[in-house]
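W.,

You were right to be curious about this one. When I first looked at the sequence I had no strong expectations either way, so I just let the prediction run and decided to look at it fresh. Below is the sequence, 394 residues in total, followed by the output.
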Amino acid sequence: MRHNSPRILVLLAALVLTLSACGSGASGGSSSDTIKIGGWMPLSGPVAASGEPQKVGGDVYFKMINDKGGINGHKVEWITKDNAYDTQQTVQAARELIGQDRVVAIVNSNGTAQTEATFPFVLEQSKVPILNTYGGAENWYNPPRNGLFGVQTLYEDQAAAIAKWAVEDGAKKILVIHSDPAAFVNVANQVAPVAKKADSSVSVDLLSVKFQTTDYAPIVSQVKEKQPDAVITILTAPEAAAYLKEAKLQGFSAPAYGYAPDAQTATLTLGGDAAEGYHAVSWFKLPTDDSPEMKEYRDAMAKYAPDAPVDFSTLIGFAYAKAFAEIVKTIDGDITSDSIIKAYENAKNVETGIMPPLTFSAQNHLGATDLQRVTVKGGKWTSVGDFFTPPARD
């Protein structure tokens, strides 16, 4: 037996390593003083203008809360990886975060198709929750998926909201310009039913644009031929800005409406004065709002990222990180994947002061349903009324 002891010890060590690599969703990533979570976002590639500020905003929130003692005494370690807005790179990032970094949750990630590609490995195999994604679709939450929770009003409902807005403003002939990936097409298809329900005489047409298109001269020429009296953009912010700029160059002045991803500084900086008068819906209060919670955001940005923009683009990361912290702090005991899921299922009227109150249940995994209208005035986003519930879709 003595001669076999070293061999037995080696075998036991190997067994421990094997077991520790499995079931990370149950207990990995949490220690007596640290909560380890992960996320992915486009930090390179065509939509890095979205991912980079989102990461900054999330980093700022977690730095701020860690300096205040963390969540119930646990410091947060948020490990982020670049997915370049690519599904394969996102799946690889998920495998690294769970298999190597052993995170207990995926928080504040970016990308609808990209995140959805990870569901089989993250949600089903690893049992690690995916929380507060910048992106999503109706079929994510209906029926609810175990471990998947969202805090942003559906893109489909945003399309309904801007469709009704355009009709209320008098539009009779609406053109929806959308990127060609399926996620964008699905959102664009929600406009017509709501617009026609608001006014049966309204006509709605669709114009598909290849994703990542930069030259909008031929696109605007097609738009002018269709002669719409309102345009709805279901595009990334850089593409929406490209449309607005080219429309101004070609003297086309029909009012334009965008969904929440277009309510960003990138639309203003890239579109310049062509963005003036552009309408959109937003998940958040204005970054300039005078509430204590928005002042906290601005103060934190000034302290931890003084060179970063104080706008919707960084507010996304900050708000989604705060929503996570507000829910997790209700956990009494070990912070694990399972306890986080239960905390979300029991979360009611969670106040961030940035978004509308969030409410979840075992049957409802989407915590937000409201939006705010915003318009570009004087080169800045300005609010149009308070939060409201989008019209029902058939």
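Here's what jumped out at me. Residues 48-67 form the longest helix (20 residues). And, maybe more interesting for your project: The chain has 16 helices and twelve strands.

Coffee later to discuss?

I.
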